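User: I'm writing a short report section on ligand binding and want a predicted complex to refer to. Could you take this sequence and 2-acetamido-2-deoxy-beta-D-glucopyranose and write out the structure as C-alpha cells? A short remark afterwards would be nice.
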Amino acid sequence: MSTQRGMAAVVAAVVAHVLLCHVAGEGVPAVIVFGDSTADTGNNNFIQTMARGNYPPYGRDFAGGVATGRFSNGRLAADFVSEALGLPPAVPAYLDPSRSIHQLASGVSFASAGTGLDNVTAQILSAMTLTQQIDHFRQYKEKLRWAKGEAAAHHIISQALYIFSVGTSDFLQNYLVFPIRGSEFTLPRYEAYLAGAAAEAVRAVHGLGGRRVKLAGLPPLGCLPVERTINPDRPGDCNEMYNMMALSFNARLKRLVGRLNWELPGAQLEYVDQYSILSAIIARPWEYGQSYPVMHLAS
Ligand SMILES: *[C@@H]1O[C@H](CO)[C@@H](O)[C@H](O)[C@H]1NC(C)=O
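Assistant: Sure. The C-alpha cells for the complex follow:
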C-alpha cells in the first residue's frame, strides 16, 4: 500500500517535470488549468455530479490528509508544477467559494472530473464541459481586471502557464463504453473530432490572451488500473489495443500543436508526452524507487 502511495506521488512529480520543460526560470505569474480528473483540484465539489473525489482514501497524503476533491492520494501534476515555479504548492479550484480573486491570481484550476473534449463525455457524469471551463476563465479574467487593474491582469493572463489535461474520458468513459459516438464516428473520425475540439479550446484561450500553453497527450490508456482489471484477454495486463488508440490520438495532437503554433500569433504551444514517461515508469518501476511492478494486479 505505502509503496503504491509513494508511486502515485512520483508519477505526478515526474509528469510535472515533463510539463515544466522549457518553462522554469522565465517568470511565470500563474498556472491556469483546464481538463478532467487529472487536473480538477476541487471544482466538482461545487456542482451536481457523481464524479467527486472529496472522501477518503482520496487525499490521505495531501497536507493534513484532506480529501480536497483531487482524484489522488496527494497532489496532482499541476500542483507540483506550481510549486516548482515558485508559486503556491497547490492550485486552488475556481468554484471554491472560500478563495478570493487575489488568491486565484497566482493560479487556478477550472477542470472538472469526468469531462472530455467531447461535450457528450461531460454529459455522462454531469461534469463541466471545456466550453464552460473557458467561460469561467473569461469571467476570471474580468474579475482579475477589477481586482488588480488592467496592467497587472494583462501581465498575469499573457505570461501565465496554461495546462490542458483532458481526453482520457472521451475514450474510456464514452467512445469505448456507450454506442452514442461509436455509431456516429469511426475511430479515426472520432479522433479528428476530438482534435478539432482541442483546437477550439486552445484558440479560445489564445483569443483571451493566453500564450504559453501545454497540451498534455493521453497516458497509456490500456495500462490504467481499471483497464488492466477488466482486460478481457489477459486480466491484469495492459490492454494493448487501448494503448494503440492513445498513441494514434497523440500523434494527431502533436500535428495539431505544430499547426496551431503557425496559425496563432505569439502562441507558444507545446505537446506534453505523458505517454512515454508513464510507460517508462510502468516498465521499469525500480528506476523510480519502486521494488515491484507498479499496479501489478495478476498474482
Ligand atoms: C460544445 O458545446 C458548445 C455550446 O454549448 C459549443 O460551442 C462547442 O462547439 C461544443 N463543442 C464541440 C466539440 O462540439
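A remark for your report: The beta strands are 31-35, 107-109, 161-165, 212-216, 268-272. The chain has twelve helices and five strands.
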